[in-house]
Structure formats: C-alpha cells, structure tokens
Amino acid sequence: MIKKSLTIKELLEHPKVRHTVSKEDIDCIVNKLRTDEAQPKDPIYIRILSGIGAWFAAIFIIIFLFLSHLIKNGTGAIIIGLILFSGAIIIARASKVTFPQQLSLALAIVSNILLLYGFSEINRNFSLLTLAILQAVICVVIYPLFSNSIYRYLAPIGFVILATAWIVKEQRSHSIHVLIAAEMLLFGILILQRKRQNFLAPLMYSAATMLPATLLFLNLTQINLWRINFQSPLWISSIIIAAGIIYLFINLAGGLNHLREPWLMMTIFSTILLGIFTTPGVLVAISLLVMGYNYGDRILSGLAYLFLPNFLLLYYYALNVDLAFKSWVLAGSGLLLLAVRFIADRFLRPRKEIV
Amino acid sequence: MLAVNPENKKANITIIHKLYQDGLLKDDTFVAAKKVLRPFSSWHSRVNRILLFLGSTLLLAGIIFFFAYNWNEMGKFLKFGLLESCIITCIIASYLRGMDQLSGKTLLLSACVLTGVLLAVYGQIYQTGADAYELFQGWTFLILGWVIISKFAALWFLWLVILNTAIILFWQQVGKPAYDIRYEWLFLAIAFIEGLALVLREIGVKKNREWLEGKWLQVILLTALLAALSVPAINLIVGYGRTNPITTCAFIIWLLVAIGGYLCYRYKLRDMIPLAIIVMNGCVILLTFIGKILFHNSHGDAGIALLFAFIILGVASGAAFWLKNTNEAMRIEISGENT
Fold this sequence. Notes:
heterodimer; A: mainly alpha; B: mainly alpha; 12 helices
C-alpha cells in the first residue's frame, strides 16, 4: 500500500470523490472550514479544567447556602434551585466569556443538586427510583435550554448513578440488564446517526461513559469491601451487548447486503461466540475501540484503554465468580481474539492498493 | 494572524464526519471520501492491532488469574514447567517475528509479564516469608535486558510500573518501619524516576525514535511526576509548622519542575497538552494555598465558602483563558515557522 496523507483539496479532487462534488459544494466546504478555524472549539483539556473547577465551586456554593441558612427546608431548596437554574441559563446565553460560562456551569450543578435534595426533603418516602426519574425529567427539560456541553454530559450520568444506586439498594439485579440495554441502545442510536445534531454529542459521550461505568460499578459491588448478593447472571448483559455490537458492525459495514462478505461473517460469528462465554466488559472495550477508530474519536478509544485495566482489576477481586472460571473466560476470550486475528491475517489480507 | 488555507489542511476522518453532519457533504461524497481515507487495508491493519492488544491482554490476564487460583491438584514442577515453557516459547516466537513487528514486541512483553507470574508462583510454593517488594525488585532486574532491546513504549511503561511498585513496597515494608525513612523521600524517589523517564522520552522523540512518539506515555509520566511532587507540597501548605526541612526541599523541587516544565513545553518543545497538565497542577497548589489562608480560623463562616467558590472559578477561568491564548499564540508561532 502506498500511504500518503491527503489534504482536503486533494481528497475532494481524488478520482473516487471528485465526481460527487460540485464547485459550489467545495466553496461551501472551504467557507465552513474557514469559519471553524476562526472560532475554534475549546480543546478537551480546557473542558476538563472547566468541569473540575465548576464542580468544586459548586460544592462550596452548596456549603455556603447551608451555612448561611438560606436553605431551611425542601421547598426553599427547590425555589433556590429553580432561581439558580434560570440564572445559569441567562448567564450562559448572555456571555461566552470564560468566567461567566464557568459560573453558569457551577450554578447549574448546584441547582440540579438542590432540586434533588428539595424533592427528597419534601417527601421522605421518595425512593431512589423516584429521584432517578426526577433527574431524568430535569435532564430532559434543561438539556435543550442550557447549552453547556459539560452539564449536558454530566446530567445523564447523574441519572444513571441514581438508577444504579436504586438497583443495588433494592437488590433488583435483573434491572441492571435493562439499564445496560438502554445504555447500549442510546449509544448505538446516537453514534450511528449520520447527521447527528451537535447538541446531542455530549449525550452520546455520556452513554459511552455510562456503559463501562455501570459494568465497573457492578464489579465494585462484588468485591470484599462492599459485597451485595447479585442474583442475576451476567450472561444476559453479555448477550445484549453482543447483539448491540453485531448491529453496530453490520451498520459500519454498510448494511445487511454486505452480510456475505467473509470478514463480516467472521466478525459476527466471533462476536456471537464472545457473547456466549465472555464477560460483558470485554465486549464493551471492543465496541469502544472499533467505534473510536471508525469516527476518529480519541475520547472513545481513550475510554476503552482506561476502562479495560480497571475492569480486569475489579473483575479479579469480584467474589461472585470463581477465580478459576474467570481465568478460563479471559484466556478463552484472548485466544479467540488471537485466532480471529490469525485467520484475518492469513486469509482476509487486503489486495495492494494505492491511496 | 497567519491562517493556513483550509483546503490545505490535512484531511482526516473526524473532519469528514463533521462536514457530513453539518450537511456540507452529500451521502455519496461522504461514502466515497470515507473509502479513500479508510480503505479496507487501513481497517485491516487497525483491527489487527486491536485484536492483538485485546487478545494478548486477556490471555495474559487469564494466565495470571489461573496461577493466582493456587491449584492444589497441580504439582509444583508442572506449574514451573508450564510457565517456563510459556516464557521460552514467547521469547523464541518474539525472536522469529522480529523486534520491528508489533507481534514480536507483544510476545516479548508477554514474556516479561510471565516472568513476574513465575516469581509469584515461586513465592506461592516456597513460602520463605520474604517481603513482597523483593518479588518486584527481582522482576525489575530480570526483565531489564528485554525491556532495553524491545523498543516498545508499552513495555517500558510496564517496567516503570513494576519499579515504582517495588519502591513503594520497599518503603512500606522496610524503609518506614526499619529505617524511619520519611514519606517525602518516597515521593522524591518516584518523582526522580518519572522525571528521568520523561526527559529520556522527550530526547528520544527529538531524535526521531518513532516508538516513543505516543502522547499517552508523556501524559502519564508528567502527571505522575507532578502528582508525586504535589503530595509533599500540599502537606507543606496544609500542615505548615509541622513539617520537616525535606518537605520544604520537596516543595522547592516541585516549583522548579513546574516552572522548568512550563518553559520547556512552551518555548522549546511547543506542546499544549503537557502545558495544560502543568497549569492544572499549578491551580491545585495555588487553590490549596488560598484555601488554607481563607479557612484557617474561619469557624464555619458562610461568606468564606462563597468567596472560595468564586476564587476557584476565577483561578480555573484564568487558567482556561491563559491556555486558550497560549494555544493560539503557539499555533501562530508554529505556522509562522513553517511558512
């Protein structure tokens, strides 16, 4: 293969591409690229810095509200929460300067926490499930109104944390599979959307984070420090995730009409095998790595690299599965993947091509 | 401002997806462009790497879990025989594949991991009462030769993790109880190792050693270096008056490393990500210092909490503003040099 990196101009003039674009299309693309360059998006490290800063500021604002006795009961918390949410939305829309943006994020986090606290104070019989539903409602209402991508990323995660806490507290172990299925579905729908609106991107990353986080949490409940008797077998989640991954792979391959391609058949067959005997964590790592590569998304790939060692560590200490069984599952999955690699390398090698 | 003609920007899959999502590429253009940027050969090569990475990681984890189970039915010679034959097979296969192949490097890494498992099984069978740090110390020395010839960043990283673990365990099991070595020395030792590795990595990249170019190694080493130095620095601020001269010394070293690192990555290496890590670390130390002053004798004053919240926002916003400007300035400097 002759490898050469193309510029956008070269790509648009490539023999395989040029017949699909007109002069007007190219002008529009160049204009768009010029506009994007003039207004660059904040790099990831600035978003991390903003998120952490706002999170800590929110903690101290809450401490202030309680120490100053501004919040005396649940109703007070709800009223102040709603006022602060309105303030956050107004500030975020009024100014794009860094400090007001950070302030609005901190206020949104504070008001979200105050609303949850307020409702749980008004009715002490509130279960964690009701709080999770309340968080979902807050998320649905605020998401379109408040354009901060960090809040849009964090709020759905808040819902999953509450839902998982409810599952663990009430010992509704089968519900974890419903949650995993919902996360897989959300991630699949959002990532496969060909013309996804920009405002849905944080929700997609949220789903991508929640899926491995739920599995880590599930393992965390099985270690010696915090043992919860989970009755439900893990293979249900494995099958759900495997089915989701197969759907993703078929979609990436271009649809069901490619089903006869030997490499796709092999991919589907090996995913089914993995779904039958491996642990869900391995399947999640595979899906994140493949999706990360397909979309050139380093965040998704980074999530997979971050998740896998943590998952293996917690899986080692999880007491719900016998260590010997775990060793067979992992070694078997590893051998299967290496065998797939060997077959792909030997029999499905691409023909030489000029790029 | 020097602007690069957008048409001459390097095309990549992220830009193509973005243009498509913004409605600037038609369906057929998008599919055709994707096929040019990501031909079957590119997919084949990446999937190959993913399968090798995941397959070998899971297989090695499976082997570790297997021996951790401590099978009573298996004789000691069978255990040793199995592990030693696995190590020898990995080494021979690695030699046959060659160190320029990723599979060869991965096989060598597997041999290094299995050496540790062999030492652990040895400790399991002959329970001599030796401290755990000795296992890691022995492991570090035994695999050093393979690590040096590997030219593989992941293996160097593994070696550093083992070395750090050996040092931490030594301090826990011998240094602190037997010699009363202060914790600052532990963090200084870790910082020294991480710092040295980082400097060698940067020199290697300057000398076009491609295998060192992965950003992940730089990020992990710099974060570990600053985190190790930050512990005594924060302790000096929080527990002022109850500290030792070595704590002050560690704080000065943190200051020198942070300033030196900033200057180096800003003006010499021109790299934004390490610069952001240094600035974030600086924010943590600065906020700890301000927090200590504000909350010292505050006795639950609500106003102080609100003031501190605004200070946090101010410091974070200031840092973000500074980083944005530096990023822009650096982009202009680099494009100016290239034209």
